[in-house]
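DM from R.C. (forwarded with permission)

"hey, sorry to bug you on a friday — could you get me a structure for this? deadline for the figure draft is monday and I only need the backbone to look sensible"
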Amino acid sequence: MKTIEENKQVQGWLDPIRVLESKLDNVNIAIELLESDSDEELLNESADNLSAIDGKLDRLEFIQMLSGPHDRNDAILTIRSGAGGQDSQDWAEMLMRMYIYWAEKQNFDVEILSLSEGGTEGGIREATLTVKGPWAYGYLRAEAGIHRLVRKSPFDQNHRRHTSFASISPLPDIEDEIEIELNDDDIRVDTFRASGAGGQHVNKTDSAVRMTHIPTGIAVTCQNQRSQFRNREVARKILRARLYELEEEKRREEKAKLEKTKKDVSWGNQIRSYVMHPYRMVKDHRTGIETSSIDDFLSGEIQEFIEEYLRKSSKNE
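My reply, with the result:
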């Protein structure tokens, strides 16, 4: 399996390079023909090929910046509602849809691994998705942090302006790349009856699973799959990723202590603001990039913001 994945990664570089070589050959042939006979159609075709080559080179140059140890991996994305009550839960669901739309635009595969529904008026408390595709984690790591929404609340009878928060936590789907020990003796598994949508099978059997890593106290819950076996599989996958995150955080904290540059991460340190009232704007506070097309943004048109942040962070490394 690892060899297959490595082959896919190599192909991810070779395929666009082969396309570039083909287009360059066409341009060279066109130049030779144009030297002997001026042909407007051929000239236009050559201009189109050169434009395509320029775009492909830009894309390869950008992908080269995704050089982190796990940037090429699939991603496990967790969305959590924060301060703001029902508005926050609705905001978390809006963000979940936004990332699903974005992933579909990138031709990535998305699956909801776990979903904790909100109150009686909808929304979500927490959702965990897997996003599968080339450089999925490399892109989504740009989204880590607090996202703030300002709008007139649809849940407030007086339609007052509310501020809501949600956190985005992307993790690499590490599979078998590194050793994260999960001893069965260190894991407590509780099963219970699933709640919410899913049909009679989901609601009438103890198929939901809560898996707790006793040494660290980290617990994950999965109830969206039809069988207890599949829920166990998914919960173990998420738990493994959370333990990896814990180890990475320990390393980051140690590095921060040495460099004395550790930054506080809290609800007040949002990376991006989405404003629907009194004006309409999305602004990334790390790069300064902004747009008034908030509806398009929430429909998944976020790639420009992702790339701008990655370019800026690459220059600062």
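R.C.: lifesaver. The two ends are 32 Å apart (CA to CA).
me: no worries. The longest helix spans residues 2-36.
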